[in-house]
């Protein structure tokens, strides 16, 4: 009897222990620039994948990404998002009979969108991609002011506006951007990463080189173990503007592959396993498929305010596709702050944490 009782006690303790949510120690935020909610939730779009002005080899692209069933299509296009993030975490923005997500800035282009993600506020004064150093305090300033997190933050991105958006001059957070292979070393403007030990990975030949961004970011993360890392990809937006739907889809598929690779690394790294949160989102949407508006975004494209956000890992509920509610880009900063057990700056204008996906 005693044996049975102690076995029951051990079992109860195990259940209690299992129910205690692991605390987030690290957050990795990844953005797919200008990647539409339509492809995220419904995969390749019929009107676009079959248009020979937008696709060089229609049968080959259809073979890769097409199915009559929208759920199969999205799994073919971004398998990590649908087989891992949606099954273990939460995803917002499917719109039809599900949760909706929008930007609140009136611009619907990149600097204003990233400002809204980082600063928790869709500041209408931020009205240009050439805007100077960001006057708004951001999640980077908040975390950098914490002694336990100080100098454990990094940004790696394809687009060279990020040092201004993050305001690295103000907070000292390194922002490695527009990474080039220079004499076998990865360099980024004036910043050369001294810890880099290998030749820079080969470029994929795309103009915007998200492959360099990813491999540099992974190497940096593996060596330096930042507590908060931002990785900003750009090719989806670039190929959207170019009207190359095949390259737009291939980029999304490749970025999804990077996420899978990063997730595999997180699961096996002693600092990151079981206590790291991965958040993936975008800076803005794009127009609808009709009249080729999918290529564009900005103030005149009202539908480009529609975005999405996906999250998985420590501190994130397993809600799958969130079924209801209206969410906003400005909530991202407070959500990251809350994962670190912190409150974002106090003011009415700042978005609140997305508690619906937080444990
Ligand atoms: Zn754009």
Structure description:
With 359 residues, the chain is of the alpha/beta class. It has one domain: Alkaline Phosphatase, subunit A, CATH 3.40.720. The protein is 37% helix and 14% strand. It is built from 14 helices and 13 strands. The protein has helices at residues 2-19, 37-42, 46-49, 58-65, 70-77, 79-88, 110-119, 139-144, 162-166, 168-171, 210-224, 235-242, 245-268, 332-339; strands at 26-32, 90-92, 100-102, 153-157, 175-177, 180-182, 185-188, 191-192, 228-233, 276-281, 309-313, 320-321, 326-328. It has an 8-stranded mixed sheet. A 3-stranded antiparallel sheet has the order 6-7-8, with no helix packed on it. Strands 3-13 form a two-stranded parallel sheet. Strand 6 (180-182) and strand 7 form a beta hairpin. Helix 5 (70-77) crosses helix 6. The longest helix is centred in the C-terminal third of the chain and has 24 residues, at 245-268. The two termini are 38 Å apart. The model has no long low-confidence stretch (mean pLDDT 91). Zinc ion is lined by residues 34, 109-110, 237, 241, 297.
């Amino acid at each position: 009897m005693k044996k049975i009782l102690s076995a029951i006690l051990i079992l109860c303790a195990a259940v209690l222990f299992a129910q205690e949510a692991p605390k987030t120690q690290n957050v990795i935020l990844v953005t797919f620039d200008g990647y539409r909610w339509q492809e995220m939730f419904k995969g390749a779009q019929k009107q676009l994948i079959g248009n020979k002005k937008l696709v060089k080899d229609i049968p080959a692209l259809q073979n890769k990404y097409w199915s009559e069933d929208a759920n199969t299509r999205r799994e073919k296009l971004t398998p990590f998002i649908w087989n891992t993030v949606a099954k273990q975490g939460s995803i917002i923005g499917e719109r039809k009979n599900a949760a909706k997500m929008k930007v609140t800035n009136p611009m619907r282009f990149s600097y204003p969108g990233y400002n809204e993600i980082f600063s928790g506020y869709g500041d209408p004064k931020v009205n240009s991609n050439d805007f100077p150093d960001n006057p708004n305090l951001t999640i980077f300033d908040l975390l950098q002011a914490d002694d336990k997190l100080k100098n454990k933050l990094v940004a790696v991105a394809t687009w060279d506006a990020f040092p201004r958006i993050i305001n690295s001059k103000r907070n000292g957070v390194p922002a490695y951007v527009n990474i080039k292979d220079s004499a076998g070393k990865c360099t980024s403007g004036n910043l050369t990463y001294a810890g880099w030990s290998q030749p820079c990975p080969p470029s994929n030949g795309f103009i915007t080189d998200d492959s360099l961004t990813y491999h540099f970011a992974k190497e940096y993360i593996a060596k330096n173990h930042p507590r908060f890392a931002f990785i900003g990809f750009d090719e989806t937006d670039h190929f959207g503007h170019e009207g190359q739907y095949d390259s737009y889809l291939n980029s999304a598929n490749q970025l999804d592959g990077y996420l899978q690779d990063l997730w595999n690394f997180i699961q096996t790294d002693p600092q990151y396993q079981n206590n790291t949160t991965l958040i993936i989102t975008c800076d803005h949407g794009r127009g609808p498929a009709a009249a080729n508006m999918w290529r564009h975004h900005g103030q005149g494209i009202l539908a480009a305010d529609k975005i999405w956000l996906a999250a998985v890992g420590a501190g994130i509920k397993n809600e799958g596709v969130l079924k209801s509610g209206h969410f906003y880009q400005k909530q991202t900063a407070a959500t990251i702050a809350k994962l670190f057990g912190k409150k974002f700056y106090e003011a009415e204008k700042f978005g609140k944490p997305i508690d619906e996906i937080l444990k």
